[in-house]
Amino acid sequence: MTGPRVTGPSVTDRHVTGQRETGPRETGPRVVVLSGGVGGAKFTLGVREFLRQRWPDGEGETTAELSVICNVGDDFWLAGMRITPDLDSVMYHLAGEADTERGWGRKDESERVSAEMTAYGVGWPWFTLGDLDIGTHIARSTWLREGLTLSEVVTRLCARWQLSTKLIPATDAEVETRVRVGATEMHFEEWWVRLRGNPGADAFVQPGAAEAVPSPGALAAIAAADVILVAPSNPVVSIGTMIGLSGPASAVPGIPGLRDALRAAEAPIVGLSPVIAGKPLRGMADICLATLGIEADSAAIARAYGARSAGGLLDGWLIDEADAAVELPGIRLLQRPLLFTSLAETAAIAADAFEMALAVRG
Amino acid sequence: MTGPRVTGPSVTDRHVTGQRETGPRETGPRVVVLSGGVGGAKFTLGVREFLRQRWPDGEGETTAELSVICNVGDDFWLAGMRITPDLDSVMYHLAGEADTERGWGRKDESERVSAEMTAYGVGWPWFTLGDLDIGTHIARSTWLREGLTLSEVVTRLCARWQLSTKLIPATDAEVETRVRVGATEMHFEEWWVRLRGNPGADAFVQPGAAEAVPSPGALAAIAAADVILVAPSNPVVSIGTMIGLSGPASAVPGIPGLRDALRAAEAPIVGLSPVIAGKPLRGMADICLATLGIEADSAAIARAYGARSAGGLLDGWLIDEADAAVELPGIRLLQRPLLFTSLAETAAIAADAFEMALAVRG
């Protein structure tokens, strides 16, 4: 925000006066995005594009620092490989390697290994792993077995791609989201991919989450952030599994230290509604929200996230034009089209979210 | 040998009189092959073809029982996958899935996963793993991690292919062949594939081999065998790593229990020379033999294997027409062309080896 192109006020005084513990710094702000998988990945692309336009470094990149704190609740071990769907979605999108037509995995993908695994009777036949994707899984699993933390592994994987974005797992602990359906319990991916959320979940549980600590990188990014944005990801199984979310029917615990860190952050926090015209933008957010007893509408989700002034998450909230602008005590509202129709439009949405954050603290 | 097509005498009395602990049995004999990788695989194909011709079951298969005891000294863990080159060579050849033009791996293979691994900096860039092959490695490694023995894993893998042959690892222990070159020591595959045997090895060592026990299947197959054939595999790093081999310069220890079981076997043991016209049939047997101080000629190899009557391995020895028929005390010799020019020719070689075994005990 010290760059000449900034029109809004500074987000924090410490930024302007240079009172940072890290010494002299770049001119762009430090932006953190909380993200799930594909939806968060697309939003992050827009944020990166916005930062490149607003704080260009003259070489096609930006002097701003973008960090993405990513959900790891979908992660699991399969056939000796650690699979991290949301981290991979963000990495592949930022790398320009995502299959945007299919909506998941790598572009130009093949599935020869998966076919062999199925022929031998190994793995989950309903969970197809692409060959290129398996290369990533093998690298990740190798480094995890060598004793690296997930954060260190993600940094190594991303080093190949030059993302100009720091990708950070919410925690280095293996905190997997499980789903209770009647008397049975299964991994989230089994319920999501194999059963496609049918029958609905009675509860989401996160064994070990209460004792898990945020990754060091997540804590550092939150503490140093000038602006924190909450992507329009699934509020329950992408955002809620990181920060916790309670409804009248049930709750996901999230990682307590991450919620605490966000509450203590100096940066304003602005979220984007994942619901447009009363319908979830993607995925099956409505089914997940129903498990918690939260209605699938923008206002209900914002209330569940809560106002920071009341111990919750949000300073500001972006909702679509098609949704009612219900007044929410302590949460500033901005209404605009929220569909990611193009990278330019997503960057414009990110710009508005950023400007709102400036305004909150201005 | 109880079938009407058998012209030779019975191999063992117990066979004819039915004094087997396993009760009524098939009419074909029980044949065991000791094998390394590709060379042993090709020989095994010939043995299976011979048995199908000589003891047909009327449905394209044989009433004989063929077991292959296979070297595991080349095995290793790479990027979280247990690789078993010799077992796979035999399995793929018997399954009709081997890439016979390239000489290793699966036919119609691709290498997309390997390229990704290399891009991330994981694995051995000089050791390319095919995509189909990786499917096998992932299945194997999954089952090993679940606690299955290697023997059980091999049985599961082979179940997919209908080999009509029992493939048995020499041991379920992880006994890997390592190579001493000057002051350094490396895995056999690194010396073999990356360095291509140059510089030559000062010694082959097998950590843990002295304490390793043969797989239960190997012991059972040897005890029940009517005929045991030693494939023309590398005498040092394929056969020697199973049964031990000593030369004036150094020795490979092998698995003591396997050598003992072979010495105690009632079945005759006939080997095939891996050297034709003074040159190794394939691979770099001469370099390996030099490490032990054994000359790369048929007579020297037979002497190193030793006569059973003198506590060694062999009752009979097949050598090529181009090699000198040096008389070897206690070892019967048969001279014939030994090149595997076609499946029919390899079957004819197998038939001669089998006939020689009958003659030894006739």
Automatic annotation (TrEMBL), chains A, B:
Biased composition (Basic and acidic residues): 12-28
Record-listed E.C. numbers: 2.7.8.28
GO molecular function: LPPG:FO 2-phospho-L-lactate transferase activity; magnesium ion binding
InterPro entries: CofD (IPR002882), CofD-like_dom_sf (IPR038136), FbiA/CofD (IPR010115)
The protein's enzyme class: transferase
Region (Disordered): 1-30
Protein keywords: Magnesium, Transferase
Full protein name: 2-phospho-L-lactate transferase
Taxonomic source organism: Gulosibacter chungangensis
Name of the gene encoding the protein in the UniProt record: cofD
